Amino acid sequence: MDTIPTSTTNESRDPPNGETMRALAWFGKHDVRIIDAAKPQVTEPTDVVVAVTGSTVCGSDLHLYNGEILQLQKGDILGHEFCGVVESVGSSVSKWKVGDRVVASFQIACGQCEYCKKGLSSMCDTTNSSPVMNTMYGHRFAGLFGYSHFAGGFAGGQAEYVRVPWAETNLLKIPDEVPDERALYLSDIVCTSYHACKEANIQEGDVVGLWGLGPIGLLCAQWCKLMGAKRIIGIDNVTDRLDFAQKKYGVEPLNFAEKDTSKGIQEMVPGGLDKAIDCAAFRYAKGMIHKVERALALETDTSETVNEMITLVKKFGTCVLIADYAGLTNHFNIGALMEKGVRLIGGGQAPVQMYWEELMDKWIKTDKFKVEDIVTHRFGLEDVPGIYDVFDKKEEGIMKCFVETKHSKAPTAGTPRLSHIKEGKVVSA
Prior knowledge:
2 domains; 6-stranded parallel β-sheet
């Protein structure tokens, strides 16, 4: 299938003098490597090139690591969350100048189409060239940094430099008083978790179930608490995360490895949950049927978590999917969805630009929202392949990390010191 014309290219001009940078690239399932790649250049007049001062590894990156996203190509540079300093600007860019500190949205929006004008930047009509997505979904969502050619084929931020298309739309200024270690996460997880709770319409007194206590689930717990939820129940099988959520946010833990989720929730909340948010996603099959069907490619996404939510919320309750679902599922309980009047909401890729100025000014700059609570480690760029492996196995207590480059400043007081990954273990620098 031919690619669809877009408002920008996913390619950069060849660098002068063969300049290179260090970057994390995908070469196959469980095969990511730090390579020397061409340093990106301004290609379009609306571009900016950012020298990366901070990036991270996201739970959704693990779908790429496990080869579960379509149209990955060997050599694709990964990473969709990054901040940095403007290094060069296109001829039509007036908003930014060299030296400005900025954080990038994980999605690439043109700022001019119907969806962008409504603030729905993640649904931009003009930046994703994938005909496969267009065929599968009926429409395309916005191009994403570092997330395969299914999402536009743009090079990502687990690198020393990134080309940012439509830079006046896709970058946010970082105030002087906000360190990179706090600003970085406005790129994705702060906005994504907030979007999930807004879509769920969390109200004073609600009883909320959170499936999955990774970074998004933990930040959703914090937002639910700030929005007035009476009770928050967290479902996971990682003891450290359950313990952390209970101590930090008052989450009532349910370890599904020790107790059946449905029985546990019914005992804890006999009348049912008001709201349920899926922060886990399609890849965590529990039952043998779904494990076999996924292994045989008879389905791509398991419906188990969605079915649990539908049956455990109250009649006319609300379920939101904020974790990634990408394809097709079997055994979906459509009858319960209809007969109970459940509101099942696909959260979509969060429209970062709709929220990030408000969240920066009201919550991050004022220190009212504590994203740093879940940032457990700091690593160097060369450690990123090891981070993928350890994070995928849910080992070494990593919840969210800050990845520095040669452009980064020393760690801000009160944030994690530099560590390394050595033979699958976190060691001091």
